[in-house]
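for the writeup, i need someone to sanity check this before i put it in the appendix. the sequnce is what the collaborator sent (i think, or maybe the updated version? ugh). structure was predicted straight from it, no edits. if anything looks off just tell me and ill rerun, i have time this weekend
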Amino acid sequence: MDLSRAAWRKSSRSNSNGGACVEVADNLPGVVAVRDSKDRTGPVLTFTPASWRAFVAATPGRR
């Protein structure tokens, strides 16, 4: 999957001391990509937009 045009943004729940952070790219057609902000060249999880919405809706403490 080509993620070269992904516009990554850090989670609003990430802390400012470099703690456990994830980045999300939701600007690609038909896919939402998620990666560890501390390992930007590492693995990326991909979801359909509907699956991502369901995951976020089921996450405790979401804003």
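Helices lie at 49-58. The mean pLDDT is 87.
thx in advance!!
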